[in-house]
Amino acid sequence: MIQNKIDLKSLTRAELELFLADLGKEKYRARQILRWIYQRGAGNFKQMTDLAKSFREQLEDRAMISHWSPEAVETSCDGTRKYLFRLDDGESLEAVRIPMEDARATLCISTQVGCAMGCQFCMTGSFGLKRNLRPEEIVNQVCAALEDGPISNIVLMGMGEPLHNFENVVKALEILYLDDGLGYGTRRVTLSTCGLVPEIQALAKRIRVQLAVSLNATTDEIRDRLMPINRRYPLSELIPACRAYAQETRQRVTFEYILIGGLNDSPADAKRLVKLLHGVRCKVNLIAYNEHDASDFKAPTDQAVKEFQNHLLQRGLVATLRASKGQDISAACGQLKAKLEKHSPAI
Ligand code: SF4
After folding, report:
1. N or C: which end of the chain has fewer CB atoms below 10 A?
2. Does the annotation mark 94 as catalytic?
3. Same domain, 31 and 77
């Protein structure tokens, strides 16, 4: 918001219609404006040439359209691109474009500045939580990255725990789904959580989105160590909540499992994982831990990864191995921010 002007990128369709009604305008005007903002990239009202001049002046007085450009971009040799955005209060956040086959791309976006969840394998967790992102700050990451090429899928898996910023994230999803706007289908957007059980239950009732759960352990003892949230919502609460989410939404839940050498990558872990996920409509995404100087965790051996995956596949679980992309450009979440804030923003 600038000088009490409302940012139209912060509004859902219903809110935009209300705002227009206040200006004495009909509902269908919302469709016109959404198309200008999201499909034609209008950054001001002068560009909206099919609106009467007096209407554009009214909009100019009361509203604005935020527009973002990244402050820094790093491109990896595999095509992964990290964008760093500077916010109006001086904070910063990142989004990552991950190229897929067939020239498609997935965009990983942030939902908070920093994060309160303190997962041990995550650089963002070590910053603590600075603040929640507003809906338009979540949406603008997508709009800015779209100027750099098409994006087929969005994952809320960057900085922050999306369900710890529940209302703003739900609103941002509503905006991303707008028919006359960016038009993302619910199957093209995935929300990743560390396991906030009451919010997982609430999410199923509020809005459709693919759910991914960062699991990473098969016992409470190891998960307590890796992810402090497990002390509040242990596996005996988390897994039933995921089962219920899958049933209620008729969707498969994705479990992310970072394999860490010598910690959670043994054959006994693979066996326990199969048992734990029995009867849950799901798939498992295995990710080999990416070693770096700031952490003592070790990468798993190639053989341990292969054996772990084979055990799941042989027991009928869908288990994919996600390649860790962008290794030459600060791969894990929060690393670009850490690097740029320690050093000069020039890259
Ligand atoms: Fe937060 Fe996600 Fe990092 Fe955990 S992994 S500390 S939830 S950003």
Report:
1. N
2. yes
3. no
